[in-house]
Write a structure and sequence with these properties.
CATH architecture: Orthogonal Bundle
Strand content: under 5%
Oligomer: single chain
CATH class: Mainly Alpha
Structural class: mainly alpha
Helix content: over 70%
Largest sheet: none
CATH topology: ABC transporter involved in vitamin B12 uptake, BtuC
Shape: globular
């Protein structure tokens, strides 16, 4: 594997500096004088912490799935976890339930249950082939995602206008929180997933080269793939349950990382974590102030950035060259 850029460590430092700048902007821009302490500590700081956690988790998830599938266009939502979470949330809103438990919002609980169902369904379909094949896993994930998406549309279509709007708004993703409870809800999922990804950076390097070579280097390929699948799916499910589906973070940041620090996951993993956190916090700040006092869903901003980025990858061939050269 070759490195992109002469000074990868400097790019890591740059990612850390960008994160600090994003934090300062998110906390201080448009902060009113009246009640600023209350707004800062009950709204701004929890919102930024949630953005940091979600952004880091989504970027690391995208990086891990791209290595595991050897597919530069894989995202955290490739295996249908987001669709499962969204279906759970949509059905909960459609049923007009009120099942808040231990301070956790009922929509988040339903979304987490949907994410878990999707994960187990994809795993079960993959096991039917009697091998944990990445090709089968990918096909099962895509099929599950399409199926759940159709059920979400059906649920939304048969709902009243208020529920339909709530479902549509949730599907756009958002970081609007009051207090730190949502941060504590996401943090365990993100922490477990990030630790697993950080520990398996060597295995990710070898999986990119090929499963056969990884096996000859002492990697238990099926065990590593299964561990990554569950850890990353759990992380994505936890983030989606609280924030809704926020796209393109896991696609954009790892690709920029490969261009700047190269394909070695020992460097790419910390860059993705720092860059994902900075990217999502910045997008949320833009979403908050772009047409203030109205707040744009942060998922809309990431999609506005990610769409052109995705097209650029296709038109310039960066998706394949950047991945294969790594």
């Amino acid at each position: 594997m070759t490195r992109h850029g002469p000074r990868p460590v400097m790019w890591l430092a740059g990612a850390a500096a960008a994160l600090l700048a994003a934090l300062g902007a998110a906390l201080l821009i448009d902060l009113p004088l009246e009640g600023r302490q209350e707004i800062l500590w009950r709204i701004r700081v929890p919102r930024v912490c949630l953005g940091l956690t979600a952004g880091a988790a989504l970027a690391a998830s995208g990086m891990a799935f791209q290595a595991m599938f050897r597919n530069a266009l894989a995202t955290p939502y490739t295996l249908g976890v987001s669709s499962g979470a969204s279906l759970g949330a949509a059905l909960y809103m459609r049923a007009a339930l009120r099942l808040d438990t231990a301070g956790i919002d009922g929509v988040s609980l339903a979304a987490l249950a949907g994410a878990g169902l999707s994960t187990m369904l994809v795993y079960g379909l993959t096991r039917l082939s009697h091998a944990f094949s990445t090709a089968t896993l990918l096909l099962a994930g895509v099929a599950t995602s399409f199926s759940f998406t159709s059920l979400i549309l059906l649920t939304q279509y048969t709902s009243d206008i208020t529920t339909s709007f709530r479902v549509g708004r949730w599907l756009m993703g958002g970081l609007e929180v009051v207090g730190f409870e949502p941060v504590w809800q996401v943090l365990p999922f993100a922490a477990v997933g990030l630790i697993v990804v950080a520990v398996l950076t060597r295995e990710l390097d070898l999986l990119v080269v090929g499963e056969d070579l990884a096996a000859t280097r002492g990697v238990s390929v099926e065990h590593v793939k299964r561990l990554l699948f569950f850890a990353v799916s759990l992380m994505v499910g936890g983030v989606t349950a609280v924030c809704g589906p926020i796209g393109f973070v896991g696609l954009i940041v790892p690709h920029i990382g490969r261009l700047l620090v190269g394909g070695h996951h020992r460097l790419l993993a910390p860059f993705s974590i720092l860059g994902g956190a900075a990217f999502l916090v910045t997008c949320d700040t833009v979403a908050r102030v772009a047409i203030a006092p109205v707040e744009v869903p942060v998922g809309s901003i990431t999609a506005l950035v990610g769409g052109p980025f995705f097209l650029t990858l296709l038109l310039w061939g960066r998706a394949h060259r950047g991945f294969e050269a790594s």
